[in-house]
Amino acid sequence: MAVPTFIDQVTLHISAGRGGNGVASVHREKFKPLGGPDGGNGGPGGSVILRVDPDVTTLIDYHHSNKRRADHGGHGAGGHRNGSHGGDLVLPVPDGTLVKRLDGTVLGDMVGAGTEMVIAQGGRGGLGNAALASSKRKAPGFALLGEPGDEIEVRLELKVVADIGLVGFPSAGKSSLIAAMSRARPKIADYPFTTLVPNLGVVRAGEVTFTVADVPGLIEGAADGRGLGHDFLRHIERCAALVHVIDTATIEPGRNPLDDLDVIENELARYGGLEDRPRLVALNKVDVPDGHEIADMVLDDLAERGLRVFPVSAASGAGMQALTYAMADLVQRSRTDKPVVEATRIVIRPPSVDGGGDFDITESPEGWRVRGEKPERWVRQTDFSNEEAVGFLADRLNRIGIEDRLVKMGAQEGDAVIIGPENNAVVFDFKPSVEAGAEMLGRRGEDERLREERPSATRRRDIQEQMPERSETETRADVARRIDRSKTAPKTVTSSGIGPMSYEIGTSDDPDWDGSEQD
Description:
This protein is of the alpha/beta class. Helices cover about 25% and strands about 20% of the residues. It has helices at about 60-65, 130, 175-180, 230, 255-270, 290-305, 320-335, 375-380, 385-400, 400-410, 455-465, 475-490, and strands at about 10-15, 50, 65-70, 90-95, 95-100, 105-110, 115-120, 150-160, 165, 200-205, 210-215, 240-245, 280-285, 310, 345, 360-365, 365-370, 415-420, 425-430. A hairpin with a 6-residue loop joins β18 and β19 (about 425-430). α11 (about 455-465) crosses α12. It is elongated and about 160 Å long. The model is unreliable at about 350-355, about 435-440, about 445-450 and about 495-500 (pLDDT under 50).
């Protein structure tokens, strides 16, 4: 089987790299048993980027290998060492590549050398416990996982970027014209459908250089799929002008230049989008005696339609210079009117599932479904084998109001709460938090013992409170000593307690009094 050399449509499965995991680590050093958290962050995964390369003219590389994946990010390590960044994968595509989803949604139009499109974003790296530490959570015993990279299936369609498009019946001489005007050497033979792929040629006329492309196999019914024109009509959508190449020496019965022109124009109109392109008519093969006579017969009729007509011969070169300069004039006018195309960088970022905001909750037969960028990302980052990490997730979800929203919507304890898309969701049992009275409960994922104030901090606060009440001769040190003495001095207790006490002899407070009256 022959291997195709020109591929203009491929389906590509693209996967970005996964972000590296963060690490939970504690600094260890001699004489420092509690050195603090020092876990590094995971590195982000590599992205997949489409980039226009002028040296690439076909999509054949992706026809043979249609699955591409970027590098994963490295995991973090102790000692505040972050993971390495995953390398981006750059896929070169020809100028004029249209990027679509499988459902036909257009994602981008790659026009202009150097234009880039980030088609799949790499996953974020997970945070290590050093980045998660705060004044309230001083020693996290968990880290966040890296996020998976984007996965997408796209269809690449190549639309050749040419200035002039040649249209006409098979064997009208389109390839011969390109060979006569440029150094392109397409296959030429004396039978229909010799040309199976679009041909490109670079033409120079005076100071203007432009490209010419032909559409092979354009016949009646091409817009409905007959012949080859249906597959290649897209290649003239970007052309600044069209040239009708009409065979004046055809031997097929029932054909004449005017009917051929009407048939091709009808197919172009049915395809759509080409009505505003300027037209030229090239009556080819006038070197043949019958062809020259037929060209003279239809010149006036074509001129009445407002068309510029050029009798030419690709074989002898007759009329080629006039046609070439007329084409250059149309190209120059088009370039003057068209703004300069600069290389752009396109990033595909899907809109939020709820059209804005942090989350959206809907009731379903399976339970309460929560959708949103933040909660879904937090779920992906959570290590569910670590209870402290799960508690941290619960606090994050509660902080943005998911728990309050569920209560208002009528959720009961034990109901199923589903976070994420249907094909990859996590299910929780709803358990709202309980407000405590005198009992002091910490936030989930935190250790209350780490929040106790040190004695030195309490002592400094007491001293600061007593400073306004000190006498003029007292210094800060005197105030500190007075507070220390008041805390260590023995306390006077009543008769019901233990220790020194005072009482009046002969009263009820006297332990030796027998109750008799004194003289």
